[in-house]
Specification:
The protein is of the alpha/beta class. Among the domains are: 38-72 and 80-174 and 255-298, 2-enoyl-CoA Hydratase, Chain A, domain 1; 309-410 and 450-536, 2-enoyl-CoA Hydratase, Chain A, domain 1 (Alpha-Beta Complex), CATH 3.90.226.10. The protein is 44% helix and 19% strand. The strands form six sheets. Strands 12, 13, 15, 16, 17, 19, 20 and 21 form an eight-stranded mixed sheet that branches.
Length: 576
């Protein structure tokens, strides 16, 4: 009887899982196919005789997509479908450059909204807009119903800023915040005991488990980061818009939002008009609507200008087997670039808060081998901290934006003890049979760790930290281990501070890194080729399924030692 019940339950479970997964995949396939076909149709449209490049700046900014189809998300499915994708940073780089050279493009219109991006990424976009204006002498307009601080920073580069005139339209100008959630009291209530292992007083990635608020050391480094961003934004906007910097500093104490009328009177915007009314000025003679050109129509790799090439390799996201940056994928790319004769230099674009220590080390060593044969320059994006800095250290040169979050040279691990939760709160018991050694169940979450186990794990953390210091010392040519340790200890720095400390060579963006790479390789005539190679829809889909299975197919505490030991900065702390 019991066997029959088990078979029945197994059948029902398999049936429902098959129906759910099959339905999700079917919807995901159709929606992705529609988006892909729509995107390809938009890109293949011929350019008008004259038109304006329209850049939507609303949504989550990614630096590079190996496949143009969106990642599947159950939340997007059940909450109304995927949002329109904001162009990637790489697409913007290509489109803005082509818009300057193409005579059919009269100028750029920035359509601003709530852009989710890091400050350093906004600095990169703003620099491209300013260079476009100065080099090609074409106008740039910015339109918005609503501006956040980050979108207004980009919009301030435009010649003219236009805003919707009615209720609800506003400029958010109330300062910056880094906000986190802390679970210590919740865990104590339910008998979950997190045990933290780390090196460095500033290594804060696990504070959400062990503390009730930010530690003073973490508060200090976050405050320093926020102040660097805020001061930089105020100075830049004051210069571009000819507004007194003191006014920009005072307004957050007086307002949360500035209405359209207030924004106009204070010089933040130039014109108040609805979008449809304002865009009538761009309607060509004999047409019924403006001739706008999408980013996709222009974001194509430039034509071959020479035999020599510089590879621009994007590394974005968390590092590890279930992350977006995987050693099994990135290391072969670096090895191929080493063998490719046409590739004369490599720019590695890093936008990562870190992750798995094992994958980070494999990537770093592959980069060191590549550097021995060809110049390698790292361009740091919004964040290149912890594992993100680990994989960057062996580059010939490192370039960062003034507000790039960098450093966090340290190691961390968290061990969750749930035996009290199981036994006291939900009346479960555990038992074990061990063969081969007294530590066969090492790191088990179902019992309290013995003092000697704690000591051994902390010793491993300390050993990896010393390796991290050695890598930074070798790669950045510091005179001693202590010289690195003094600025390490898990602390994050802004790009400006990182340059003063020797962690970064030059301030700037992708174009600065490309110029440095060309100089290192003695190139004057070259073209840029982008890596990794695009993936097919099914390759991307299969990887998403693998990541889903890794994350949810097993207990969250079931991790190997390399997966548990992280070179990671607290990515959940978002500056906004």
């Amino acid at each position: 009887m019991w066997r029959f019940i088990r078979l029945l339950l197994a059948f029902l479970l398999a049936f429902f899982l098959t129906m759910i997964i099959g339905g999700l995949l079917l919807v995901g396939t159709f929606s992705s196919a529609l988006v892909l076909s729509g995107a390809r149709g938009e890109e293949s449209k011929p350019l008008p005789k004259e038109g304006w490049l329209r850049i939507p700046l609303s949504g989550e900014l990614r630096e590079y997509e190996q496949d143009p189809t969106p990642s599947f998300s159950a939340a997007e499915l059940f909450l109304g479908g995927p949002e329109k994708r904001v162009p990637t940073l790489e697409e913007l780089r290509l489109a803005i450059a082509e818009a300057g050279q193409n005579e059919k493009v009269k100028g750029i219109i920035l359509q601003c909204g709530d852009l989710s991006a890091r400050p350093a990424q906004a600095q990169q976009i703003a620099r491209w807009i300013v260079d476009f204006k100065q080099k090609y002498k074409k106008p740039v307009y910015a339109y918005g119903d609503y501006f956040t601080e980050i979108t207004y920073f980009v919009a301030s580069c435009a010649d003219t800023i236009i805003m919707y005139p009615q209720s609800g339209a506003s400029v958010e100008w109330n300062g910056l915040v880094a906000e986190g959630i802390f679970f210590r009291r919740f865990m104590e209530k339910w008998g979950i005991k997190p045990r933290l292992f780390r090196t460095g007083r500033y290594k804060s990635a696990a504070e959400s488990y062990t503390e009730e608020k930010y530690s003073e050391d973490n508060r200090q480094q976050l405050t320093s980061l926020l102040e660097d961003v805020w001061v930089g934004w105020i100075d830049s906007i004051a210069k571009r818009r000819k507004i007194a910097a003191d006014s920009l500093r005072i307004w957050p104490e007086q307002y949360v939002f500035l209405s359209a009328e207030m924004a106009l009177s204070r010089g933040l915007v130039d014109v108040l008009l609805p979008w449809q009314e304002w865009t009538r000025r761009f309607i060509p003679e004999g047409k019924k609507e403006p001739s706008f050109i999408s980013v996709g129509q222009l974001a194509k790799s430039p034509k071959k200008k020479g035999e020599h090439q510089i590879a621009l390799v994007y590394a974005e996201g968390g590092i590890g087997p279930s992350g977006e940056i995987q050693a099994d994928e990135l290391v072969p790319v670096l090895q191929d670039l080493l063998r490719e004769d046409d590739i004369k230099a490599v720019v590695l674009r890093v936008n990562s808060p870190g992750g798995d220590v094992l994958d980070s080390d494999k990537i770093a060593k592959a980069l060191r081998t590549l550097r021995s044969q060809k110049p390698v320059v790292v361009s740091m994006g919004g964040v290149a901290a912890s594992g993100g800095y680990y994989i960057s250290a062996f580059a010939n040169k490192i370039v960062a934006e003034p507000t790039t979050i960098t450093g966090s040279i340290g190691v961390i691990a968290v061990l969750l003890d749930v035996h009290e939760l199981l036994e006291k709160h939900i009346e479960l018991r555990t038992d074990r049979v061990k063969v081969g050694g007294r530590y066969a169940d090492f790191m088990s979450p179902f019992r309290e760790a013995a003092p000697e186990e704690v000591a051994r794990l902390q010793s491993e953390i300390d050993r990896i930290y010393e390796e991290f210091l050695a890598i930074v010392r070798e790669g950045r040519r510091y005179p001693s281990r202590d010289a690195v340790h003094t600025i390490a200890q898990g602390r994050v720095w802004s790009g400006v501070d990182a340059k003063e400390l020797g962690l970064v060579d030059t301030l700037g963006g992708i174009e600065v890194a490309l110029n440095l790479a060309a100089r290192e390789a003695s190139l004057t005539d070259y073209r840029v080729v982008t890596y990794p190679e695009p993936k097919s829809f099914f390759e991307k889909w299969f990887r998403d399924i693998q990541a889903f299975s890794t994350r949810w197919g097993f207990p969250l505490w079931k991790k190997t030692l390399p997966e548990m030991i992280q070179v990671y900065w607290a990515d959940e702390v978002q500056i906004r």
